[in-house]
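Notes on consecutive records. When two proteins share a document, each keeps its own sequence and its own token line. Never mix them. Below: protein one.
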Amino acid sequence: MFNKEKVKLGIAPIAWTNDDLPDLGKENTFEQCVSEMALAGFTGSEVGNKYPKDPQVLKKALSLRGIEICNQWFSSFLITRPFAEVEKDFRAQLEFLKAVGAKVIGASEQSHSVQGLEDTPIFGHKYVMNDEEWEVFCKGMNRLGRIARDEYGITLTFHHHMGTVVQDPDEVERMMENTDPEYVSLLFDTGHFAYCGADPLKMAEKYADRIRHVHLKDIRPEVVEKVKKENLSFLEGVRLGAFTVPGDGCIDFDPIFKVLEEAGYEGYMLVEAEQDPTKANPLEYAIKARKFIAEKTGL
């Protein structure tokens, strides 16, 4: 069993209000979102677009509900923008995260990303970096990770993601081999590995010692197959329900939990399953996920 003192459970606001598809959950407020997170039994959250921008206001609202911020997405553009520009945005976000007490930042390289393009198929259209771009990217990640760790006490975890330059297992491997473990860790996302055709269990086994944040996400394989066959975009797949909470899709989480447990994983495991809240009631699915995780892990 996981150590309850060292492993905590969180849930992302994207099930209530979707940052990439603002019409999904536009009726749901910040207060409803975080109240229902607490009601479902979670103690951590990532940052959503509706969250207060003032750290003190945010901390007060969350502390009333027994919740803390455990991570926030950061869009890096290391291969298409000057490093100084990326660093400025990165530091601003680190200042915010430090002020709210977060220990992790989740970076995703968004240069040439097609994940947010509603008219571009998610399969077969991702950008592939050349050797020069790989070098710029990996060196840039090391620099960002060093800034985060040494100056803010925050761990940089890299989020592999559908439609981005680091999506497939070989790309994750190249990034891991060419970045410093002292500065760059992995944000392990079960759903994004399964979506691109990788085995999440094998990925967990391979990178267990560098995983510092976990996204627990399941997929509905029939929807992913439809996305592939009909050349649909990533966001069209989200609308159709490609993702769901752990235990509601096809991923076998038992051996994944076992690998993380045996590796001595510490930190947050966060349910992150973006769906249409009018089709998948956020509180209902949050409770379903919480029960599943409790049954499988004892947490």
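Protein two starts on the next line and is unrelated to protein one.
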Amino acid sequence: MNLDRAVMAFAGVMILASVALTQLVSPWWWLLTAFVGLNLLQASFTGFCPAAMLLRRLGVGSGCAFR
């Protein structure tokens, strides 16, 4: 798995977890969904993604979007 796919998988897991937490715990968990979406949007324009930096340090190989 390369870094690009790992970032997308991580974002998908975070969004699904926040939706589940919204239903089970509190509607305030929608803020996590919004944060993940905004982070994906800014990463598409700037190329800066904190999740990509973390996954790179964990040893995930580089992809073409995040170098």
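For the record: The chain is about 70% helix and 0% strand.
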